[in-house]
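Board notes (copied after class):
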Amino acid sequence: MVEELQYREFRVPLGPGLHAYPDELIRQRVGHDGHPEYQIRWLILRRGEDGEGSSSQVDCKAEHILLWMSNDEIYANCHKMLGENGQVIWPSQETAGEAGTLDKSVLGEMETDVKSLIQRALRQLEECVGTIPPAPLLHTVHVLSAYASIEPLTGVFKDPRVLDLLMHMLSSPDYQIRWSAGRMIQALASHDAGTRTQILLSLSQQEAIEKHLDFDSRCALLALFAQATLSEHPISFEGIQLPQVPGRLLFSLVKRYLHVTSLLDQLNDSAAEPGAQSSSAPEELSGERGRLELEFSMAMGTLISELVQAMRWDWASSREGPSAPSSCSIFQPQLADAGQGLPPTQAQPSLRRSRRFRPRSEFASGNTYALYVRDTLQPGMRVRMLDDFEEISAGDEGEFRQSNNGVPPVQVLWESTGRTYWVHWHMLEILGFEEDTEDMVEAEEYQGAVVSGGQGVALPSWRWKPMSELYAMPYVLPEDEDTEESEHLTQAEWWELLFFIKKLEGPDHQEVLQILQENLDGEQILDDEILAELAVPMELAQELLLALPQRLDDSALRDLLNCRVYRKYAPEALAGQPAYPSLLEAQAKPQESADAARVEAKEPLTPCPSSPLRHLVEGYGPAGKIILDLEQALRSEGTQESEVRSLLLLLQRQPQPFLVLMQSLDTPAANKALHLAILRILIRLVDFPEALLLPWHEAMDACMACLRSPDTDREVLQELIFFLHHLASVSRDYAVVLNQLGARDAISKALEKHLGKLDMAQELRDMVFKCEKHAHLYRKLTTNILGGCIQMVLGQIEDHRRTHRPINIPFFDVFLRYLCQGSSVEVKEDKCWEKVEVSSNPHRAGKLTDRNPKTYWESNGSTGSHYITLHMHQGILIRQLTLLVAGEDSSYMPARVVVFGGDSTSSLNTELNSVNVMPSASRVILLENLNRFWPVIQIRIKRCQQGGIDTRIRGLEVLGPKPTFWPVFREQLCRHTRLFYMVRAQAWSQDIAEDRRSLLHLSSRLNGALRQEQNFADHFLPDNEAAQALGKTCWEALVSPLVQNITSPDEDGISPLGWLLDQYLECRDNPQSRAAAFSSRVRRLTHLLVHVEPCEVPTAVVATPRPKGRNRSHDWSSLATQGLPSSIMKNLTRCWQAAVEEQVNSFLTSHWQDDDFVPSYCEHFNNLQTSSSELFGPRAAFLLALQNGCAGAFLKLPFLKAAHVSEQFARHIDQGIQGSRIGGAREMEMLAQLQRCLETVLIFSGLEIATTFEHYYQHYMSDRLLSLGSSWLEGAVLEQIGPCFPNRLPQQMLRSLSTSEELQRQFHVYQLQRLDQELLKLEDTEKKIQVGHEASGKEHERACKEEAEDAGGAAAADVTEEEEEEEEEGLYYEGAMPKVSVLVLSPRCWPIASIRHTLNPRTCLPSYLRGTLNRYSNFYNRSQSYPALEQGPQRRLQWTWLGRAVVQFGDLTLHVSTVQMWLLLYLNDRKAVSVESLLALSGLSADMLNQAIGLLTSSRGPLDLHEQKDVPGGVLKIRDDSQEPRPRWGTEWLIPPQTYLKAEDEEGRNLEKRRNLLNCLIVRILKAHGDKGLHIDQLVCLVLEAWQKGPCPPRGLVSGLGRGSACSSTDVLSCILHLLGKGTVRRHDDRPQMLSYAVPVTVMEPHTESLNPGSSGPNPPLTFHTLQIRSRGVPYASCTVTQSFSTFR
């Protein structure tokens, strides 16, 4: 059918493997905006699994969507439909082949023949009335049928006389004439669908056609309608149980449907072409269209009303309260536990609870609780449902009526359904009697009010949104605007009320119009045109709602009570209580009365023969009296036909008593007398024609239940068969209904049971069997009508989207509510399995599913061999599988259960779950929310409690999905929505591509579309799931393609949104009003695009039925567009990153050489951050995009520019840290500037620029630490920007300082220990000398004296030697020596350039300082022998000139460097010193010495420099203040200031050379390994090895590199990142850690030589130290009157 498509290249994806193609232009109209619109048929095709480009199509049935499109939408989506002039090309109108072959004269003669044949047939038909039709009449009709099959003669058969002829033939009693009429209609309808529809419409609109049509004629017309609508609305409802609708109601629905489609065609054709508007006045056209719209709305409301009743949806649901409007966006994903954060009163309705009765949670098992409920519950008590059970949901409340031994055993009158329903004991919670419950509820409410009042906390409304989300959902009306009530009804509400007014007839209609006339001033005549445009106040609406119920029949009254206008405007007195018992009682008690008949069987019957019937209807008031009067009229002698007919007319208006009568047949078989009385009444009723208009089909289920029941008495069964045969004979429609209900099998079983001794049973079975074809037709018709109504509803939704006009169709929300049933309501389905098999005792397997906690299945076998096997129905996804056990079973109770799944019993290999059962458990959940269908599921009991062998299972519950209309309607709604918005998104994208400025209007366009969908969901969709499905589809179809298009770059590499963001950033600070309006539009657009966040929480798997066939429901989350919000965010962040990169790149290009570059850049970065917050809110994704954009701009800088920028940042941070020592307000300002700078520096992390930034920061940090010392700010800065240092050298520098402090503390202890040792030696020596003198005798005095002299000389020699030793090391005297702190600096982390000047303590320092240094050297050398202090090879010390000191010059305190300290202390012993001698003595460079001298000889310094001709460099002297007296107190800071580097100097060029050399090595190594590539770690090792061994770089270049000749793994990784960014090196897609060469490198490779020429091995590691000298007192200082320098603390 669809082998070749003219516009197949224009494809719109609708789902996985599902696409829509424009196929044909149907019609044209003028839109509401005055522009032409074209209706295009889009074909829906599915493709095979081999890809989109495959030509094999799995399903080519004519699924299609009719979509109205504008010129712009056609141009953007299928421009080949437009001609060169821009107009739509209509399909070529080719003349039919037969018309071309027929001559005009021949055709004219045939037309004349047809007219004469029609006249003759009418005459012959009138002549044979009441007789057998003559043969000439049949021949004439046969010839007419032959002529009707010729398509060029179709126009002749449109003569009104043809309809008269067909009507007479269809109403003829002769079968052959009716059959001939059907042949003629089929011949006329065989040409095209339009002719077929016209014929059906014309015939159906004939007055009282139902009276003239018999069963066969009606079926003929219904078959034509089914054929006409089969291809128009190919919607399948497979798997959904549709009700049995008799042919009479089907024909009425067909009439309504044809009338609605006719009016819809008239509306579409009322302005067929733009040029046709000028033929009539605009007022006339507007009035005619308004009349058609009103008529269409009324007809559509009537169709929906009848369809709802025919589908029995009004029985399936009770009267619902006003649906609360959606308070949140339908486009934002809702988390499953979103309600947990809400206040309890808003998250869920308040539940009543009784204090007198125990809840189920207090019982150990469900069986114990069931026994408690059974023994406690009394009739009249209030109960609440705890579990979902079939039609009753958890939380429903009702009144307990009775119980018996049936299954289920408990009967409750439920408020939710208005009728009784049987449930199980364990499912109920006892609330108590009504009086106690109400008092208890009031007490709870009072207590809650006291608690909340005591806390004094007002819970905020859950609609509250933070101010940061002010622009997030502009399409959701604010709470005050949303809840504001208008003084008048809207047009939709008034038309819904007008629908019921038009239902009234005669005096009732006039009375209501009089009420309108009295309340509306200035209106004389209320015709249809005026009524349609009335503005009705709320007070008048309430008055009408009070007057209407008294004048409407039960059917219309039921519609009124369920409509929106009644729920909203009905007076509280009317809405709060049942004002019309005749209807409401009937709604509440049809099942109750039938169930009450069960008790009748247990009670003794009174002698009155009518007592069973009287007991049945008592309590019904006037409605029950109708049944009794009817029974009395039928029993009386000589049936009072007039009275019976009057009663039947009452039952037609109020059919509920009749339904109660029939449903009483579905009661226990013990009610034999009641059943016989009812059947005898029904048999007699069938003889009255008025009785056939009663809804027999709605209660036919009760007849089938009685027929199938094995306990039905034979006499009752015989009467039932008589009744059904009589009913089916009078109206074959009910034979069709019986066929659909499976009566044939039920009758066969009854015959088999009673051995064929049932009169008329065989005839009834044959009659039912003959209606098999008609039953299939009725099912097809029901499907087609429902599908057609769904398509019309979707068409109205599309018009609502296109025109933004309200939907004024009555009951539109009711129809959508029934279609969406099941979208969020979990229902139970206990028929999920085909059969249940057990391992042993199969005769007791039925105990598993009898829902009786007292019974159980007990196994018989060895341990671990017990199992239960479930064979599931096709396609059933298990929502919950529960095992019922009881703790009282002791060792029979299962302890471990394992569940397996498979395709058959021989392939149960997949373990689905394993559960350990606690001894106190009663319900064990084995499976939940399966997302796959398993044909066979086996439950294996592996172990029992207490080591038991056999097991007992109390029950088995399997919950699965119940088929509803929601999956089918969701699929259709999502398809239409996706197609509509994808077409619109493409049109808007085309406008933006042609003119970027139209992007400014996108926010208003999107906001209008989203508000339209939001309002539609709030008004018409009943729950959150349906609204979320619509919102998700709309967002995916509209916003996602738009974002994809506006973020895609054009030929110039700029995307429309990127251009808009650039414009926003440029004019952000512009105070002009136009710039402010422009910025406002941009902000509204970006906020709208990003307000839907991707939902990270996985959605719960809901077991939803998936019907087979081409119309099975699809899960839209399985599309390629799953998670579309995340893809939208990805595109937007990429676009924002490109805009930021362009802005930063432009700034760097223009300002990189400015003196205030860093502050300017920080301000620019802060502006970008502010703009990101303004545009996208505080979303981390866009902040990350901002950082990536800045990083991309830095990567584009050449190396020297990047080095200059990094040096500027390092300098600015250095200045900020030094400035923070000032104190006061200036310090706070510097800290704030430093913080802003650090935030921008974080972007360097991971970039190549981080290496040069670390290089300069290391130099400046070294000078800062050595000259000023460490502070808390150093660590704080490193903690914040630590990732910006790839080698972590600054962190190592701080660690080395802490290590030096620890060594200094150990050195202090070491000096004290040395002093104690020397003093101890001296004491020992003195004691030895004293003992020697006392021991010598007088006789040996001379000899001893000589020995003492020798010993004293030796001791003196020893002491002298020791004193000489100490003179080198110096003795330590605690408290008298200057405090000297030694900083041990390692060349691994400290810059070598700053420590290359060495200090010789012997020649440059005083003895008291030199001794301290000698002692520290000894201490450090000894500490090297202890590996616990520091690991590694032996280190040696080398003193440097770095450091600082505090020198006292009189009362003046001087902060100086080590070099300056040496100069000042050197002048203590001299009056003048030449600079030349100082250079020779110190070995310092002239620059370094002159820098130190310059500050000492400044106006703040203590020295003067006198230049002499014979002395190069001049002579230094202490300044004489006699001539210029200055204060000799205070503090002076004379340390040389920081010296900053320049990236353009030799050191910067050396860094660039090193980078280029490393690039050459990387490229060479990767080239050698080819496409295979290298692992990144292996590549780093090879590069470092090549760098150390050569032959790269040349000797001359190594000497020029200086410090740059060193290389680390971090340097290599930085170069690898650079080459990856340039595209020279690429990663492997499957293994990102593998690198290979991609394109030729542009770096010049220098000649390669050894890096370390002449080196025979690695040099020993060096450790440099510097001094930090302080002293409390200087005993060695000069005491002369001349000023001298001393160190102090």
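Comment from the instructor: The chain has a mean pLDDT of 74. Residues 1248 and 1614 are 5 Å apart (CA to CA).
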